[in-house]
Amino acid sequence: QGQLVESGGGLVQPGGSLRLSCAASGRLILFNAMGWFRQAPGKQRELVAAISSGGSTNYVDSVKGRFTISRDNAKNTVYLQMNSLKPEDTAVYYCNTQPPGMRWGQGTQVTVSS
Fold this sequence. Notes:
The protein is mainly β. The protein has one helix at 28-31; strands spanning 4-7, 10-12, 18-24, 34-39, 46-51, 57-59, 67-72, 77-82, 91-97, 108-112.
């Protein structure tokens, strides 16, 4: 089975920005819809953004206008640009196919706090 490796998280002040990356092995990203998911403490994992193999995107209402998902098939990488971050965006962020079909990676922690 392929591997997913998330990176780019960190501590940022409210209103700040981060860019997350998800590197996938093989040609996983080329042929699958991909999603970014997040899980906050005590909450269920939720889909935040998704991108189809053709490039169509959709977002959960709480991040619309602030987050942008993109893909680079040549690099087997999916990105999540996060702007105007809020404390409620604090979570561990994961990528996977959409719907999820791969083993979950370790994720990358995003903490939004002053």
